């Protein structure tokens, strides 16, 4: 009986982290893709290694998912996270690869975030997409994809500034822009390398660790 009580108390003390989205690299969907491709599991390892035992990490990413498609799963992921949990959102790369216009992207982003933040709201962490170093592309194509990613990440920052329960992991702002330092972070112009996954995981892990416990306390429904 005592063991059951202790296990129940431990479960109640854990803070769920639920990740939704797709591969962060702006590239066309690849058959047999695996959603985020590994950095979510690395986040769990990072939290464990840093002694942050109160977090439980669940990967609900889907290959090819978009901001609009994710809105269909809002109820599911909000239930998994609960009002005291954290939703990590890694979306937008697919639309950028398809050339969706910025105005539509911003509309889809705003609608998803507002749906996620219905009271009682979890904490939402928005993660930047990444433009790969285009081994087979022209300089003009590289400039274009970099500019598209920069525009969308500015929108993510604006949403985070406007919403108290939203944080922004600014991956792209610190991402190398040239040379080997950039090339080693992606593979085949379409996916993160092992080093890229590690870099993303470290950034998300830092964001979670920095959250004050009060920021993820359940808030009463209005």
Report what the structure shows.
With 222 residues, this protein is α/β, with parallel strands linked by helices. It has one domain: Rossmann fold. The chain contains 9 helices and 7 strands. It has helices at residues 2-13, 39-49, 67-70, 74-81, 93-98, 102-116, 139-162, 179-183, 194-210, and strands at 15-21, 55-59, 86-90, 123-127, 166-169, 186-187, 191-192. It has a 5-stranded parallel beta sheet, sandwiched between helices. Strands 6-7 form a two-stranded antiparallel sheet. Helix 2 crosses helix 9 and helix 6 (102-116) runs parallel beside helix 7. The protein is globular, with a radius of gyration of 18 Å. The N and C termini lie far apart (36 Å). The model is unreliable at 2-12 and 218-222 (pLDDT under 50).
Shape: globular
Through-space gap between termini: 36 Å
Return the CATH architecture: 3-Layer(aba) Sandwich
What percent of residues adopt helix (DSSP H or I)? 40-55%
SSE run: HEHEHHEHHEHEHEEH
CATH third-level topology = Rossmann fold
Estimated radius of gyration? 18 Å
Instruction: Provide mean pLDDT, rounded.
Output: 86
Poorly predicted tracts of residues: 2-12, 218-222
| Content-based structural category | alpha/beta
Number of domains: 1
Strand order of the largest sheet: 2-1-3-4-5
- By CATH, the superfamily comes out as SGNH hydrolase
Describe the structure concisely.
With 222 residues, this protein is an alpha/beta fold. It contains nine helices and seven strands; from the N terminus they run H-E-H-E-H-H-E-H-H-E-H-E-H-E-E-H.
């Amino acid at each position: 009986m005592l063991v059951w009580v202790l296990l129940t108390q431990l479960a109640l003390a854990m803070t769920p982290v639920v990740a939704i989205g797709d591969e962060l690299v702006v590239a066309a969907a690849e058959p047999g893709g695996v959603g985020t491709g590994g950095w979510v599991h690395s986040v769990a390892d990072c939290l464990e290694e840093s002694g942050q035992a109160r977090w439980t990490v669940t990967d609900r990413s889907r290959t090819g998912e978009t901001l609009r498609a994710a809105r269909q799963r809002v109820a599911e992921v909000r239930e998994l996270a609960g009002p005291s949990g954290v939703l990590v959102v890694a979306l937008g790369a697919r639309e950028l690869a398809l050339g969706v216009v910025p105005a539509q992207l911003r509309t889809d982003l705003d609608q998803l975030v507002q749906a996620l933040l219905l009271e009682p709201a979890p904490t939402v962490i928005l993660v930047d997409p990444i433009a790969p170093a285009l081994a087979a592309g022209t300089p003009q194509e590289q400039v274009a994809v970099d500019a598209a990613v920069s525009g969308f990440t500015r929108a993510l920052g604006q949403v985070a500034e406007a919403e108290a329960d939203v944080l922004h992991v600014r991956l792209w702002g610190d991402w190398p822009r040239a040379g080997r330092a950039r090339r080693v972070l992606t593979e085949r112009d379409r996916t993160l390398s092992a080093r890229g996954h590690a870099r993303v995981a470290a950034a998300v892990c830092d964001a979670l660790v920095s959250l004050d416990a009060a920021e993820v306390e359940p808030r009463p429904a209005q």
